[in-house]
Amino acid sequence: MSVRNSSPQSSVEAASGTDPAEPDVRTIPTPVGDARATLYPAPGTVRGWFVASHGAGGGIEARDLAALAAALPPLGVTVALVEQPWRVAGKKLAPAPKRLDEAWIPIVDALKADMAGARFAVAGRSAGARVACRTAAATGAAGVVALAFPLHPPGKPAASRADELLGAGVPTLVLQGDRDPFGGPDEFPALGATGTLTPVPHADHGFAVAKRAPVSQDETLKTITDAAGTWLVKLLG
């Protein structure tokens, strides 16, 4: 599938990182409608890519995704934040998981044209993390970063989605707030030799912390970006 540039910045400029203040916005056709990817290029040598999407209740402006888009490019990791077709179309409700997967695989395939063979990780927050896990093998990703993985619906721990997480088939990093009603870190199963679970203290499902918490919001986001950055540098080489 082709990728259409939606900004005046060229593909060459995006790849070289000559203007990091102007992210490159792409429109990506999929079988279920157009998606939109905002690229934050790594300056200089590119170590790899981080392709991430949002959850069912928000967009790429989520605090964790925005923090990662700022923190990862200086480490040599180009970031692509993807708005799913249902969000681009202005719909308020996400479609069924199968439809999300049908869009995600061609989105990643289209972005590979810009990667020049570089290794990449797929990622998402909440429902987007589920998509990344379910499709990791099909996209050829080197790893998955699961932000606020919704292990179960709130108050229903028996309705576990652990099989999606454990079935990713690639190294996986889970970043989970310890006040997350969709599953705190202590509820997760053992992730195996290639899985890493990093608790985010005092954070809820959106990685927000209360004003009375002993850590600030900025410190919480740094916990997330430091853990993801360290893990990705090791994964991508």
Topology:
Elements: E1 4-5, H1 11-16, E2 24-28, E3 35-40, E4 48-53, H2 63-71, E5 77-83, H3 85-88, H4 97-115, E6 120-125, H5 127-139, E7 143-147, H6 162-166, E8 172-177, E9 195-200, H7 217-236
Parallel strand pairs: 4-5, 4-6, 6-7, 7-8, 8-9
Antiparallel strand pairs: 1-2, 2-3, 3-5
Helix pairs in contact: 2-7, 4-5
Can you describe this structure?
The structure is a single chain. The protein is built from seven helices and nine strands, in the order βαβββαβααβαβαββα. The relative contact order is 0.14. It has helices at 11-16, 63-71, 85-88, 97-115, 127-139, 162-166, 217-236, and strands spanning 4-5, 24-28, 35-40, 48-53, 77-83, 120-125, 143-147, 172-177, 195-200. Mean pLDDT is 91; it is low at 6-20. It is α/β, with parallel strands linked by helices and 237 residues long. It has a single domain (4-236), classed as Alpha/Beta hydrolase fold, catalytic domain (Rossmann fold), CATH 3.40.50.1820. The chain has a nine-stranded mixed sheet, sandwiched between helices. The two termini are 28 Å apart. Helix content is 32%, strand content 21%. It comes from Yinghuangia aomiensis.
